[in-house]
């Protein structure tokens, strides 16, 4: 149970948040005041710096229950703070997204994914309970507690992927899993995307590869005939090398995938292996050039620093102006993560690699969990199941993946030249059309171009409309379409 000090802190913070909400101008949309963001929508940098609702009191780990493998945490707690608090106790969240400054509330309301998602699903699937600050019937703020089976179960299931259009999570009870000191890796090469996706299917079904348990799996496609799966497992010892590898300074993690067949990282460094170089995007800032890297402060080799540079460019267009003076074509930003059914992933990768001049590409297998978070047993690492595939009503209507169906997240983050005669956004529109054609969805943290009817069909329009009528009838929060597509 939480200590009396923790209980008093939570109660006081909830009361203060409700009072602050009630004091906000009723004729202005409610926004969250945050110092950091991982959004890449047009206008997101501008909206982030506006004053808004201050929920910074909801940061930190309030309670850890080792027996039930759960923790009560604040919604604005970053995953870096979660890992720092939980890993010394021998636990981690079931899914730790790749970037340090993603918050647990952000991962629930905006989705998240990582190499454990093939067995643990999405972050919101390991949530037992959420306290959410909604607008309330009178539009002056109401805090409700939502679980999978209480009177606010409708909000519990529509909140994931709502991006602040239904309210903000104050604190949550999340499930944890035991962590070991190290993660041992194998990088397995494939000469075609078909072979890669065949291997993904084997790993997702058996959770074993070449006789070794697989706790983590993701991959990188460098080109059509060179791709890799990185297969990891928790380990109590360093296997096959003198010490754990360090990719936080001179060496760069994604390059090691091509250079090494096996590796070992500390659990901490494995969880943040992608953050140091923002996958491979730090090369755009010169941070991978040996000379610049030696001069770049080590504590500034991290994703939020690069994001600030991008946000500055979004606001001021310095590099765009320089490129224009040099006679370069303007560029379209193509920063997306998409979920494709595994059966169609090779088809999508083949199309993408031949139509969009971006590489490398990240792949991360994912499937919804096989048991609900409200079950009585702690989750840990579940074995494979023979449960039949259920293609009925998706359990999370605003991001309608189906239970029992394997998917692959494909991530690509760069820009392309806008060819003469083309419109800005044409490449993104083509990607959206292809993803929809193949039965997939894309995450909404970046630019989207859907018309309103298509968006409603793809992202649970009826479900969120019903939730808005109950929890925000006065429209204090922007709608999901306004936030995700119109970037309001």
Give a short overview:
By secondary structure, the protein is an alpha+beta fold. It has helices at residues 4-23, 44-48, 79-86, 104-110, 117-120, 153-158, 193-206, 253-259, 267-271, 290-295, 303-316, 318-325, 342-355, 426-437, 452-458, 461-471, 480-484; strands at 61-65, 70-74, 91-93, 127-134, 142-146, 168-178, 182-190, 208-209, 212-213, 216-223, 226-235, 262-266, 331-341, 361-366, 407-417, 441-442. It is built from 17 helices and 16 strands.
Structural write-up:
By secondary structure, the protein is an alpha+beta fold. The chain has a domain at 4-179 and 465-484: Uridine Diphospho-n-acetylenolpyruvylglucosamine Reductase, domain 3, CATH 3.30.465. It has helices spanning 4-23, 44-48, 79-86, 104-110, 117-120, 153-158, 193-206, 253-259, 267-271, 290-295, 303-316, 318-325, 342-355, 426-437, 452-458, 461-471, 480-484; strands at residues 61-65, 70-74, 91-93, 127-134, 142-146, 168-178, 182-190, 208-209, 212-213, 216-223, 226-235, 262-266, 331-341, 361-366, 407-417, 441-442. The strands form 3 sheets. Strands 12-7-11-10-14-15-13-16 form an 8-stranded antiparallel sheet, sandwiched between helices. Strands 1, 2, 3, 4, 5 and 6 form a 6-stranded antiparallel sheet that branches. β10 and β11 (226-235) form a beta hairpin. α7 (193-206) runs antiparallel to α13 (342-355). The longest helix has 20 residues, at 4-23. The chain is globular and about 60 Å long. The two termini are 41 Å apart.
């Amino acid at each position: 149970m939480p200590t009396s000090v923790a209980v008093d802190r939570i109660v006081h913070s909830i009361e203060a948040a409700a009072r602050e909400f009630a004091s906000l101008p009723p004729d202005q949309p409610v926004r969250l005041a945050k110092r950091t963001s991982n959004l890449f929508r047009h206008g997101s940098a501008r909206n982030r710096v506006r004053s808004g609702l201050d929920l910074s009191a909801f940061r930190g780990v309030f309670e850890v229950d080792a027996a039930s493998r759960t923790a009560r945490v604040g919604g604005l707690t970053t995953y870096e703070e979660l890992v720092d608090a939980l890993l010394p106790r021998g636990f981690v969240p079931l899914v730790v997204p790749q970037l340090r400054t993603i918050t647990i509330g952000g991962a629930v309301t905006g989705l998240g994914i990582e190499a454990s998602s093939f067995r643990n699903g999405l972050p919101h699937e390991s949530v037992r309970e959420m306290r959410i600050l909604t607008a309330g019937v009178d539009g002056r703020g109401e805090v409700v507690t939502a679980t999978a089976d209480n009177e606010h179960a409708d909000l519990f299931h529509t909140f994931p992927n709502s991006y602040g259009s239904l309210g903000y999570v104050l604190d949550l009870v999340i499930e944890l899993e035991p962590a070991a000191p190290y993660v041992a890796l194998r990088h397995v090469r494939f000469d075609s995307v078909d072979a890669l996706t065949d291997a993904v299917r084997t790993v997702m079904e058996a959770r074993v590869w070449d006789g070794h348990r697989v706790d983590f799996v993701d991959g990188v496609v460098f080109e059509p005939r060179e791709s890799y799966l990185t297969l990891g497992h928790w380990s109590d010892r360093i296997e096959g090398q003198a010490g754990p590898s360090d990719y936080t300074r001179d060496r760069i993690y994604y390059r090691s995938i091509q250079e090494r067949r096996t590796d070992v990282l500390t659990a901490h460094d494995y969880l943040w292996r992608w953050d140091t170089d923002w996958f491979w995007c730090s090369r755009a800032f010169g941070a991978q050039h040996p000379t610049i890297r030696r001069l770049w402060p080590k504590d500034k080799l991290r994703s939020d620093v690069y994001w600030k540079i991008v946000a500055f460019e979004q606001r001021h267009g310095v590099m765009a102006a320089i490129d224009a003076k040099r006679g370069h074509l303007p560029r379209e930003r193509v920063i997306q993560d998409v979920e494709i059914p595994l059966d169609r992933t090779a088809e999508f990768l083949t199309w993408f690699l031949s139509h969009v001049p971006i590489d490398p590409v990240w792949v991360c297998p994912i499937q919804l969990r096989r048991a609900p978070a409200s079950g009585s047993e702690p989750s840990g690492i579940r074995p494979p199941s023979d449960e039949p595939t259920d293609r009925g009503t998706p359990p999370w209507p605003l991001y309608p993946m189906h239970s029992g169906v394997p998917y692959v997240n494909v991530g690509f983050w760069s820009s392309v030249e806008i060819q003469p005669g083309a419109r800005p956004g044409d490449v993104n529109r083509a990607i959206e059309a292809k993803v929809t054609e193949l039965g997939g969805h894309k995450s909404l943290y970046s630019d989207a171009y859907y018309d309103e009817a298509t968006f409603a069909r793809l992202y649970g329009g009826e479900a969120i409309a019903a939730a808005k009528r109950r929890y925000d009838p006065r429209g204090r929060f922007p709608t999901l379409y306004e936030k995700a597509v119109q970037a309001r």
